[in-house]
Amino acid sequence: MYSQNWQILPSITNSDGRYEDLWFINIYTGWVVENGGQKRIMKTTNGGDSFFEQYRLTAADSLSFGFRSVAFNNTQLGWAGSTSGLLVKTTNGGTNWYRVDTLIVPRPIGLCDMSVVGDSVFYGSGRLNGPSNVIKSTNAGLTYENIDMGAYTNYQIGIFFTSRDSGFVAGRSNIISEGAVVCFTPDGGNTWIKRYRSFIQSEHAWNITFLNSQVGYATIEKFIGGTGSIIKTTNGGVNWVRMDVSNVSGVNMDPVGFANVNKGWIANHYLTGLWQTTNGGVNWNSINVGNSIHGIYILNDSIGFACGKEVLKYTNQLLGIPNSNQISVPFTNTLNPNYPNPFNPKTNISYTLVNRTTIALEIYNSAGEFVETLEHGYKNAGSYSITWDASNYPSGVYFYSLRTDQGNNYGKAVLVK
User: Pairing state of beta strands 67-72 and 52-56?
Assistant: First the structure.
C-alpha cells in the first residue's frame, strides 16, 4: 500500500502546448483537452492507464481556436470550448463531435470554463480579456441562450452551478475599482448579484468550485505580483473570507480542487507543482510534481486528476516512472523588460506570443490602480512592440500587465521627470 500522492501519468505524452482542462464522469472515464501544436480531445476509459485521441481541430479551425474547457453531463453528452468562442458537442461519449457555436445567436465570445447540472443543463463562461458572457442550454443543446454579462463583469473565467438555476461566475468587475468579483444568480442567469468584491484593481477571481451547497472556494489572481490568495464560503456563497497563500506568487493563480472540506489543491499555471492544504485553506505546502498546471478535477478523497504540461493522478497506487526522454517544450508568452527604464516620458514595451491569442496590455500604478489600456484584441503568434507615452502621468513606479489566453505576465517601469 502506498500513501496517497500525485504522480505524472506515463500513459500520455507531454504536451507541446498544454493540457488545459479535464473532466471525469467516474474513476475510469474522463476527457482532457489540449491546446498548442496539437489541439485535440483525448479520452481514457481505464482511469488514465491509457488515452486515445477522439477529435482534433481542422487545420483551418486551429488557426483561430484552441481548446480551453471541457465538461460532461453523463457518459454520452459532453462539451468542449475555446477562448475564441468555439463550442463542440458530443452525444455519444466523444465518438463524434460537431460544432454548435454557429447555432448560438449572438455567437459566443469565448468559453473559458463550463458547468453542467443533471443530464441536460449546460453553462459556459467567458472570457479572459473580455467581453464577458454566459452561454446556457437547459435541453441538452437543442436551444441556447447567450447572456451578456457586461453589466456585472469586465471579463470572467470560472463558472459553477450548484443546481439547475443557482450558480456563480468569477472574474473582474465591470467597475474596475471593485477588482475581483464573484457574481451569483438564483434564477438561471436572468438576474445577478455581486457576492464578493475585492476592491483591489490589479486582480481578478479565476477558478471557482463548490464541494456542496454551502462550501466553496475560488482563486484570486493578481496582475502585478504579491502573494497568492483564495476566498472561501461556508454559507452557500453569501459571504466570502479571503486567505493568503504566503508561499506562492499571486500571478497566474489558477485552478482549485478539493477532496473534502479540509484537503485541497491550487496551482500557479506558470510554475512547477501544486500547493496543498489539509485545513481548509489556512495553511499550504508545496508539492513538487507537474508543470504549468491549469486544470484540477477531484473525484473523491482518494482519486483526482490534474493537467498542464503533463496529466497527473492523485491516488494511492504506484503508477510507474514517466519516460525520461519526454521533453517539456516551453509554452509561455514572453514579456520583455521595457526600454529605456527609468524613462521620461516614453518607453518601449515588447512581447512575444507563442500562439494566436487575445491580449490585453494594461498599465497600473504602484497602488495597483488601473491607468490605461495600451492594446486589446487578437494577435497572431509573433513578436510585437508598443511605445507607452507617459507624458500625462506623474513620476513614479508603474506596472505593465500582458494578459493572454495562456495567462499573465507583468513588468515594472519607473517614470522619472
Answer: unpaired
Cell of 59: 487545420
Residue 13: which residues within 8 A CB-CB, separation 6 or more?
Answer: 323, 326
Share of the chain above pLDDT 70, in %: 94
Query: If you write DSSP's letter for every residue of 280-307 in order, what string do you get?
Result: TTSS-EEEEEEES--EEEE-SSS-EEEE
Distance CA 250, CA 229 (A): 7
Q: pLDDT tens across 293-329, in order? A: 999 999 988 899 999 999 999 987 665 544 444 444 4
Residue at grid coordinates 523588460: 337
Indicate if the pLDDT at residue 358 is higher than 90.
Answer: no
pTM of the model: 0.87
DSSP-based three-state secondary structure for 176? helix
In sequence order, the β-bridge partners of residue 204 are 221
Angstrom distance (rounded) from CA 320 to CA 326: 14
As a whole number of angstroms, the distance between CA 104 and CA 35 comes to 23
**267 φ/ψ angles, rounded to the nearest 5 degrees:** -150, 155
Q: How far apart are CA 324 and CA 321, in angstroms?
A: 8
C-alpha cell of residue 98: 460537431
Q: What pLDDT score does 321 carry?
A: 47
Among residues 273, 377, 294, 401, which one has the least CA distance to residue 5?
273
Q: What is the mean pLDDT of residues 262-272?
A: 89
Q: Rounded to 5 degrees, what angle do the CA atoms 71, 72, 77 make?
A: 135
* Tally of CB atoms within 10 A around 259: 20
